[in-house]
Amino acid sequence: MNASLLAALKHRLPDLKLSTEPGDREHFGRDWTRRWTPEPLAIAWPGSVEEVRALVRWAAESGVAIVPSGGRTGLSGGAVAAAGELVVSFDRMKQVIAFNPVDRTLTVQPGITLQAVQDAAREHGLIYPVDFAARGSCQIGGNIATNAGGIRVIRYGNTRQWVAGLKVVTGTGELLDLNRALVKNASGYDLRHLMIGSEGTLGLIVEATLLLTDPPPDSNVMVFAVPAMDALMQVFATCRAQLTVSAFEFFTDRALHHVTRHGAQRPFESDSPFYVITEFDAGSQAQQDAALAVFERCLENGWVTDGVISQSEAQARALWRLREGITESLAPHRPYKNDISVRISAVPAFLHDMQELLAREYPHFDCVWFGHIGDGNLHINVLRPEGMPDAQFISECERVTKLLCEVLEKHGGSISAEHGIGLVKKPYLDTVRSAADIALMRGIRGVLDPAGVFNPGKLFDSTPPA
Ligand code: MLT
Ligand code: ZN
To answer: For the FAD-binding PCMH-type domain, which residue ranges apply (predicted)?
Structure first.
């Protein structure tokens, strides 16, 4: 069956680069989640928009599912191919197509890495401000498909804010040219925004026009030791009131433990249950003085007990490593990941309820808290206790996730802030989205992808549960 399907594909698209090599199937059949065994039919690397269109038409006619593949750094299983799907990788479509200095836009192919986009923007004296630790591997198509967030959302917003135009191939192979980088466009539904965050279920992004902006002034980074959970938001409010903040992140002593074992340097000797890292504009003496004043005010109020301000770019990078290295340092433990959010104003009460829930339900588990607390977004990674079988660990975490959803509901939050729903959070979608929402999403999916080619089984199933 597989052989005849592939023979038919080769016959239809003789120039398409394809592989069924075990190494490729293993590599391209998964993202950073490790729960599923990759079982793709094959990997295809189209080289042009027309090849993508032809491939999609063939898949729709042949009943073959497609899993779009970017850098596969996702954490929700959105790029997993474990059921005989054809993985469509954009590794061969990674060029910068155009820079427009008047519009201040960069038009790129989907397979370009975030890092390469940032570098290209800098070559023109501008920045593409969306940023996160996976920048060197993740691809812009995947960033857009998941509406990626990261460490500078507090200042610049999510990926959505930076997409001026998109070209997308729908499930019928049609090519949509969405918004054409217009600043103002009141001509009906903005389908561009429907595509952003659709997790590869509505279309394949084949070109993106990204907005760029001016670089910020020179910045500094501070890390504070925070003695109590209640003080985190006091520190945040003080920083935000006195400084121009471009990042405000937190992590716990457990996160510090793992990341320093993984090569990061302790910021200072004293221990603390919580730490925050903030980046702020420090181009003038007044801004630098303001940072010192913030530190002193927080010390006087007992909201922080220690701190350090970067004195060089190298030191700023070393401090960032404390936060950015956490995911990598936890990866060997194959953690169960939570990526939850509430409104910023709800953070203090939410933190309390979460602390209570986790202490009660996970008394013997290493729960590592960190994340974008300035956006109301927490990553709570639960580490597998030594020797606990996979199935038992997952079922235990799923039991607690159901309880967590109740806490989220109480605080009006979301089960996924920035990682997406994919496969991992699919069972909980209906706790944060109404039945009417999901029915509408299902309908939209059916219109854009009538044959159900794109990422079946991800986000939600195409037919409602009986
Ligand atoms: C991060 O912000 O570092 C990742 O999104 C979080 C994670 O690995 O859970
Ligand atoms: Zn994150």
So the answer is: 36-215
Is residue 202 located within the same domain as residue 102? yes
Same domain, 100 and 165: yes
Last residue of a domain, one of 211, 228, 259: 211
Are the C-beta atoms of residues 367 and 380 closer than 8 Å to each other?
A: yes
Report how far ligand 2's centroid is from the alpha carbon of 102 (Å).
Answer: 33
pTM of the prediction? 0.96
- pLDDT (tens digit per residue) in 145-184: 999 999 999 999 999 999 999 999 999 999 999 999 999 9
Atom 7 of ligand 1, residue of closest alpha carbon: 327
Beta carbon of 133 within 6 Å of any ligand 1 atom: yes
Residues 100, 191: one domain? Answer: yes
The Cα-based distances of 241 to 116, 247, 249, 295, 307 in angstroms read 34, 14, 16, 13, 19
Measured in angstroms, how far is the CA atom of residue 98 from the centroid of ligand 1? 31
Confidence check on the interface: ipTM exceeds 0.95, yes or no? yes
Please report how the helices 313-324 and 253-261 are oriented relative to each other, as an axis angle in degrees rounded to 10: 110
CA 352–ligand 2 middle distance (angstroms): 21
Domain enclosing residue 410, as ranges: 334-429
Q: Which atom of ligand 1 is nearest to the CA of 323?
A: 3
Helices (H), 226-372: 229-242, 253-261, 285-300, 313-324, 326-330, 347-361
- The pLDDT tens digits of the residues spanning 223-281 come to 999 999 999 999 999 999 999 999 999 999 999 999 999 999 999 999 999 999 999 99
Is residue 337 in contact with ligand 1, taking CB distance under 6 Å? Answer: yes
Calpha distance 111→206 (Å, rounded)? 9
